[in-house]
Each structure stands twice: as structure tokens, then as C-alpha cells.
Amino acid sequence: MEELEFVIYPDGRVVEKVTGIVGSSCAEVTAALEAQLGVVLSQQTTSEFFAPVVQQSTSAINQATYSDW
């Protein structure tokens, strides 16, 4: 489950924490929000950032065998 958490401090600082998004796509998800919030002072990547992205694919092979019995 993708989750974005924001902590807003009294001095105006905002801490953003992203969980549930694997790989660098978290930067794409948060880019628009960060642009609206202001200057990004620092970023820390988590282990999810470096985890390999798993691609799920499904395929079905239909095979029919006919006999002359």
C-alpha cells in the first residue's frame, strides 16, 4: 500500500515520508507536491528505493490436442 506522510513543524518545515513505493518512482510521485511546498533541503532514501521493481506479467498458452480415437 502506497502511503505519504507529512509532518508540519511550527517553524514551517515539512518532513515527507513515502512508504510502499519501490524504486525511484517515489520521486515522480512526490515531485509535484515538493514543487508546491518549496525548497527541498535534504532527501534520505530508504531501502525501498534500492529494491528491485518486480514486474508481474501473465500469459496463457492454449494448447489443444485432437486425436482420431
Tell me about this structure.
The structure is a single chain. With 69 residues, the protein is an alpha+beta fold. Helix content is 25%, strand content 17%. The protein has a two-stranded antiparallel sheet. The longest helix is centred in the middle third of the chain and has 13 residues.
Query: How large a portion of the residues is in β-strands, by DSSP E?
Result: 15-25%
Structural class of the helices, strands and pairings?
A: alpha+beta
Taking strands numbered 1, 2, ... along the chain, how are they ordered across the largest sheet? Answer: 1-2
Report the sheet with the most strands, covering strand number, pairing sense and barrel closure: 2 strands, antiparallel
Which oligomeric state applies?
single chain
Overall geometric form: rod-shaped
What pattern of helices and strands is seen along the backbone? EEHH
Distance between the termini: 54 Å
Radius of gyration: 22 Å
* Helix share, percent: 10-25%
Query: What is the overall number of helices?
Result: 2
Uncertain runs are none
Strand runs, count: 2
- Provide mean pLDDT, rounded: 81
